[in-house]
Write a structure and sequence with these properties.
Largest sheet: 5 strands, parallel
Oligomer: single chain
Helix content: 40-55%
Number of helices: 6
Structural class: alpha/beta
Strand content: 5-15%
Distance between the termini: 38 Å
Low-confidence stretches: 201-222
Strand order of the largest sheet: 2-1-3-4-5
Mean pLDDT: 82
Length: 222
């Protein structure tokens, strides 16, 4: 049996997308049958002991001996909380969040594997209306509003630094979506292609008897 570990990395503002990622993986597992095992890897499922920080525990799970085959990154309006002085970049500077740290770990693993795995899929939510709802001053104090806006700027900085050159041209691909259902639809197509490629098959070859989007009916939002 071919087993593929799929790591899902995101801050806490895309809970619905994380849940849909698990649903997409389960749907694809049903399509592919018993010859393939798709294993979702989420930090909330890690047995992190009290003797380690959350990020240290995640680092251990993502270590080389625990291979990740596909890494899915989901961003919207938060990059996450700084990691502090315990875990730093190679130049000694601090990581702005665990998501940034995990991105670097997956990039390093990709290079160490001879640029084969993990397949890295990055998604950003473009939802101005949803973000503006969060800025309702009747819900938040000044400090909270400042933190919300600051986090959005950190996401923009991360995308600019890691995916664009100095002239704003893309050097790495990322995918935008407007709402969770659109994310789920796009992710299912991308994951199917990534798993097919990892199996060494041609992308056009399929072995499933069901229509490819049938399983997405469960994701419709009323």
């Amino acid at each position: 049996m071919n087993s593929f570990r799929i790591f899902i990395s995101s801050p806490g503002d895309v809970v619905e997308e994380r849940e849909k990622t698990k649903q997409v993986i389960a749907a694809l597992q049903g399509e592919m049958g018993s010859e393939v095992s798709l294993v979702p890897v989420l930090w909330e499922d890690f047995p992190i002991p009290a003797t380690a920080s959350f990020q240290e525990g995640i680092d251990l799970v993502l270590a080389e001996q625990h291979r990740v085959d596909i890494a899915v990154f989901i961003l919207w309006s938060r990059l996450g909380s700084p990691l502090g002085a315990v875990i730093t970049k190679q130049d000694g500077s601090s990581y702005r969040s665990g998501t940034e740290r995990e991105f670097d770990l997956m990039l390093a693993a990709y290079e160490q594997s001879g640029r084969k795995r993990p397949v890295m899929l990055v998604y950003t939510r473009k939802d101005d209306n949803g973000f503006n709802d969060r800025l309702d001053a009747r819900k938040y104090g000044k400090d909270e509003l400042f933190e919300i806006i600051e986090q959005l700027e950190l996401v923009k900085q991360f995308i600019s630094e890691r995916f664009q050159d100095r002239d704003g041209h893309n050097i790495r691909a990322y995918h935008s979506y407007r709402e969770p259902i659109g994310f789920a639809q796009r992710l299912q197509v991308h994951l199917r292609g990534a798993v097919t490629d990892l199996l060494g098959l041609e992308s056009s070859i399929t072995t499933w008897s069901e229509a490819p989007y049938r399983s997405l009916e469960a994701f419709d939002i009323e």
